[in-house]
Design brief:
By secondary structure, this protein is mainly α. It has one domain: Four Helix Bundle (Hemerythrin (Met), subunit A) (Up-down Bundle), CATH 1.20.120.330. It is built from 6 helices and no strands. Helix 1 packs antiparallel against helix 2 and helix 2 runs parallel beside helix 6.
């Protein structure tokens, strides 16, 4: 299978860059943004595989994107659960009307942010394992 490692690294390195910024938000109480950034780095990491394979990586639904990846590479329950958790964090951490009352920053906790970061880390580790030829 031919891989476009340059495109993979372009996307994956941006995922890693974003992942490294999650702690800044956690340490400053920006839990909603830490959750969103975790979702974003997972999205870029998953898309990096699809981009390396020359496949369409359009959309923001992590479950749909991961289904495309797991059809090619082995699926994994821990990764699937992480993808499912982070998929729910695309809109709710950012939009003031995502909740019936209050703003996102009032709803997200340090535990939410830490769980989101751990979920992103599981996905990053999985991508590294599957794409070792490009690293």
């Amino acid at each position: 299978m031919d891989l476009d490692c340059e495109e993979f690294n372009r996307w994956f390195n941006q995922a890693l860059y974003t992942f490294n910024l999650v702690d800044v938000d956690i340490n400053n109480g920006g839990y909603s943004w830490a959750c969103f950034k975790s979702q974003q780095c997972a999205e870029m990491a998953i898309k990096s595989i699809l981009k390396a394979l020359g496949k369409n990586a359009f959309g923001y639904g992590l479950l749909k994107l991961y289904d495309e990846v797991s059809a090619i590479f082995s699926g994994n329950d821990d990764v699937h659960n992480s993808v499912s958790y982070l998929d729910k964090l695309y809109i709710s951490p950012r939009y003031p009307d995502a909740f019936a009352e209050g703003s996102p920053w009032e709803h997200f906790t340090a535990n939410d942010a830490i769980t989101a970061k751990k979920s992103a880390e599981i996905i990053i580790f999985h991508v590294k394992r599957e794409m070792v030829r490009c690293l």
